[in-house]
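FAQ

Q: What does a record look like?
A: Structure on top, sequence underneath. For example:
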């Protein structure tokens, strides 16, 4: 019989245990400031293969490699001026840089691409774990392929629990949405591949150049980041997205209605809200947890209000559109 994964509170003994498992090519779910990751030794083919198989992820979808600091990251990819500026400004933090790779990063991690996605996470326990290890960690979000990303240890336990060695419990993730992924390979054609907590405006102000906001159309074009797959990040329950502020007058009876903020009046127990006050950061932090809870409740449909298209709202709307598509 398969055993459920142990959920370990972040204490020194737990970090030692996770490091021990990772050195043996086992997988550990780790907290980051964005979402939980399914981590393995990025330099071990055996560990990386396990990541793809546990997640049910096709081998053509590349992984992010997580480093303890920028020096170690830039030793394995070809950096440029923009990468240095962004690392200086936002690492450790929720920003992933795509750069040309060196042979030090195994081809399996990057799905055979000549580029690699690298980031230095900020979450304290994840940083401590990386400090302990002699190798970087490859980690996709710790959800079954295509499902909603986990923002709490229990979300990982509910889905991948029986398939991994341990879950390091760092509490709820600070941002609650995956990192911004930016392609920096061509300084004249910088692109956001996946919008996230660090906005296009923030990136533009650091590199002194306006860049497109990262709203990628779901039809046509090469999938330069497989996170661009139009159907992704999706709960099992059908989602209907409606515009910010346009609350349906007659919500469906079999549906849950999910609003950005607490309404002044509500007369149904099937109304949920993502924040008391409409703060975009709070909505982002609560979204994936609420989606996973509602997914267990047997609703026929989730009717969800989009966020204003600003700040982290751009990233949340991107995920909601994919979940609804
Ligand atoms: O916040 C995050 O980024 C989380 C935490 C655990 O770090 N990780 C995460 O990983 O969301 P994942 O695998 O679920 O999403 C990584 C995204 C995917 O869309 C993948 O296609 C893209 O990054 N990616 C990875 N390597 C790439 C590359 N070389 N070129 C373009 N896109 C790449
Ligand atoms: Mg993911």
């Amino acid at each position: 019989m398969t055993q459920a994964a142990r959920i370990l509170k972040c204490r020194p003994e737990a970090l030692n245990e996770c490091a021990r498992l990772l050195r043996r090519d086992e997988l550990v779910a780790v907290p980051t400031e964005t979402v939980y990751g399914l981590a393995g030794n990025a330099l071990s083919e055996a560990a990386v293969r396990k990541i793809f198989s546990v997640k049910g992820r096709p081998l053509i979808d590349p992984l992010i490699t997580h480093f303890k600091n920028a020096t170690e990251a830039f030793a394995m990819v070809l950096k440029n001026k923009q990468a240095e500026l962004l690392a200086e400004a936002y690492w450790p933090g929720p920003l992933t840089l795509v750069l040309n790779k060196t042979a030090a990063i195994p081809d399996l991690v990057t799905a055979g691409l000549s580029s690699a996605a690298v980031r230095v996470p900020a979450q304290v326990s994840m940083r401590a774990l990386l400090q302990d290890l002699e190798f970087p960690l490859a980690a996709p979000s710790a959800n079954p392929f295509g499902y909603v990303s986990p923002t709490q240890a229990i979300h990982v336990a509910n889905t991948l629990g029986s398939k991994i060695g341990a879950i390091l419990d760092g509490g709820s993730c600070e941002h609650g949405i995956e990192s911004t992924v930016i392609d920096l390979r061509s300084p004249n054609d910088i692109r956001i591949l996946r919008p996230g907590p660090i906005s296009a405006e923030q990136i533009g102000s650091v590199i002194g150049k306006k860049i497109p906001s990262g709203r990628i159309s779901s039809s046509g074009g090469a999938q330069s980041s497989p996170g661009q797959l139009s159907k992704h990040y999706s709960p099992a329950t059908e989602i209907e997205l409606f515009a910010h502020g346009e609350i349906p007058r007659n919500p469906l009876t079999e549906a849950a209605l999910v609003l950005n903020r607490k309404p002044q009046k509500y007369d149904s127990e099937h109304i949920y809200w993502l924040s008391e006050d409409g703060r975009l950061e709070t909505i982002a932090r609560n979204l994936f947890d609420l989606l996973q809870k509602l997914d267990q409740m047997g609703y026929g449909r989730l009717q969800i209000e989009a966020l204003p298209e600003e700040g982290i709202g751009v990233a949340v709307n991107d995920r909601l559109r994919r979940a609804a598509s």
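Q: Is there anything notable about this one?
A: The pocket of magnesium ion (ligand 2) is lined by residues 140-141, 149 (CB under 6 Å).
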